[in-house]
Amino acid sequence: MATLVRLILGAAIAFLFTLQVRGQTVPIKFWQDTIGVTVGTTFTNRLSIENSGNAPLILHMLVQTPRYIQWVSSTPQRLSIQPGQTETIPLKGLLYHQPGKPSQLVTIFLSDTSGRLLHRASFTLNIKVPVNKPAISVYVPEETLVLYAGSEPARPSLHLIHHQARRSRYTIEMQSIPLGMDKSSFPTIITLKPLQDTTFTFIVHPQRYWSPNKPYQLALTIRDSAQSIISSVLYKVVVAVTTKRYEKTDQLNNSGYGVRAAITKLSTNEWAREARIWGTDSLGKTQLAFQLNYLDYASSNFQQLQSSAISLRTARTQLQLGSVYDYHEMPLLGRGIRLNLIRPDHQWTFWAVNTNPNWLYSGENAWTGNVASVRYDQQLRGLPGASWSLSSSYFTQPGVMRAGYLNFASFQYDESEHQSLQVLAGQSTEYAQNNPSASRSMGWAGQVNYTYERPAFRWQLRSYFSSPVYAGLQRGATLLNNQLAWSVREHTTLLLRINHVHYNQIRYTAATDFHRYVFGNSVAEASVNRQTGSFIAGLRAYWNLQVDSSNPFSQQATSARLAPSVAYHHNASQFMLSYDVGLFNYVTAIPNQPQLISQRITSSASIGDFTLWGYLQKGPYYLNDLRTERPDQIMTASITPMLNFALLDRRLAGSAGVNYLFDALYLKSRYIAVGRVQYDVTPTFSVRLEGNGTPYAQANEFSYSQYRLEVTKRFDQLRLKGSGRLQLRFFSDADGNGQLDKGEQWLEGLLVTVNDNTLITNEKGIITYKNIPPGTYAVSALSTSHLGDPILFQESITVDRSVNRLIPLRQTFRVTGKLTCQTNAYDQKPCEFDRFLIEVRRAEQKIASTSPLPDGTFSLHLSPGTYTILVHDRGRQVQATVKTSPLQVSATGEHQALNWTVDGSTRAVEIRRFRKE
């Protein structure tokens, strides 16, 4: 009888669970339900949320992670999903300590605007016990760096735990996105003692200033002695000011508008004038971008209008009119239209292009024509990391009266971060336009690329083959690159490489007339590099074959060469010297030509702000050097000293130097001033001067140099759309009545975050955003001084035109408590505290909610007052409130103990059905 009751009860619970799942309107799924991870490594997953209803869906998301997981990616707390739309959110974390349990859960909670739980889902982390500890463990104490002035340096900190039992050196590299960082002190070398646990703080100066209107990211990369990447970290740098223009966090998009005018003097005494206009903006949910680039060679009476286009992009569509630059077997380079239809797992792309990139030139030649192309790209859902593409194109070449078709298919599979495979097959048909049966040619192409990578071993094989009449970008190509890099020992690296590039092309000069062009080179090499302290010594031995059927003196040359090198790096100082010597054999019509010994010396040095570059060549090195009857007299020397400077609070910065070139073949010497200087007159107006020239050349036609002066002005967003103004004013509400009373103070020094942008209140408690697009923004305030605990204000504010808010804030105190599980004798499993939710209410209004940590502790930040605390058990069907308790927080933050015992034995019922075999 007892067994029957258990079965009936289990069936009832399963039925209720089924009803709940059927009523679920927020289908979510993970890319991977189980992920293996080891200490010191990151893991990545993707969460897909689909709105299967008929109305927009607004969700609040909470991510609960185990104790020893540091969350790396930023996850939105609030989501707005349109009907039929699927939102994909990347999830990335770092395991920095070995937990006691080999299996851990990462749980996602989705609730509606009222706080009602809609869905809970988890994926499992299987913690692997590492056979060998990683060399170092890396984590970041603070990812957001708040500065209070644009000229103030950023100070990113890095916590390193060195696991090796010997002293090791690592190289620290730093980049900024977008550009704006002074990189003179990077890369830098740090030395870690055996089993050392330490924190490094780096000082990063801006190149001129950090723009308050632009959020920056600093990308820090750690490399070991073999220059292998150990870790990469991102910091966010924001300048906290009282008032600024709102800017989205698209780091690679230079939003706003600009105009640039430049004048250039070439070494041929020819002058060129340039004008460029560009801009990006958002029109509702559409992103607008355009640019116009005009170039006028005055003395040649030749004008160019190219790199000029306008594009509109939404979440599912992109349209570009004007200049097009695309390469997929066919060079789609010119002017025309491109349309992208973007979906979560596939994409259609259409092109219609006239392959003359200059809008001001209408003449036809052998290279211009028209192309109509379509391409389809698809990701394979059943095989993560795999995708395939299919394309078909029709093209015409009016200059030579030919036309044809080109089709190709490709497949790419990234099996893991260690292996990837790419395969391509193409076919083309080309014919005379006036007589398709005449001079009809059929071409083909194939490509196989494979990469295998491990921490101490990397093998890369790239191959491409096409017939001489193939109509694709690589016509008549035989390309082979086989490269193997192996870290033999900790400070020793071996590289073996075979690189073969050969072209046998048939180029049509008319509908039925053609010529053949053969050129290319082959290199087989072996090199070894050894690092000892700050010194790196290398030795490279290689054999080189060069072929060029158009060379009038020699159409083929071979050389066997040996190239030792030495480099020294220490903080901001570095030095490099390489010597390349070998025998140079070439084929010529003149008999009995002796072998030539050719030599190259290259050197560079950098000490502080001074750099020096030098070069010396004796004898021919490239086959192109043999376009002379006297190759044995080739001797070129070049030296370039440079001085870097930064003045006027880095508003005036650049480098200046001189290049000296001596050419013994033509008995010429040349001095050219080189360098760059930029002066930022204002944050949006700059003047730049550049001068450069080729540091070495054996013939006049290659001795290019130019001096260029440009003036750039940038503008804020244009009034193509309505933009609003957000002004918030914070005061200390001492009596909690929500009104500004006499004696209550404005809150100065609050860090106020609007989405990902940070400001700081002035002495009157004010922050202001100008030109803020209409929308709903997540606003939070953080105390930096006298207001006690950190979380003071958090709210979503909708901006239409202008919003002015007076916001009362009360001092908050940290309220802590702990849950303890009451289990039964038959249930000895650890308590799953993540199933409980602690909710705080004041007069039936929800104030805050949180979940306990894995040990049952929890904390809240509350201002003085009377509250009700409810403990919800989400593990029960249906969700139940298992504890209700009043809470009184005094004016000094005192409160009663919040230590409660809850029933943790209620678990999901496992139902087994038996049948007779």
TrEMBL record:
Domain of life: Bacteria
UniProt-listed SUPFAM superfamilies: Hypothetical protein PA1324 (SSF117074)
Protein name in UniProt: SD-repeat containing protein B domain-containing protein
Organism: Fibrella forsythiae
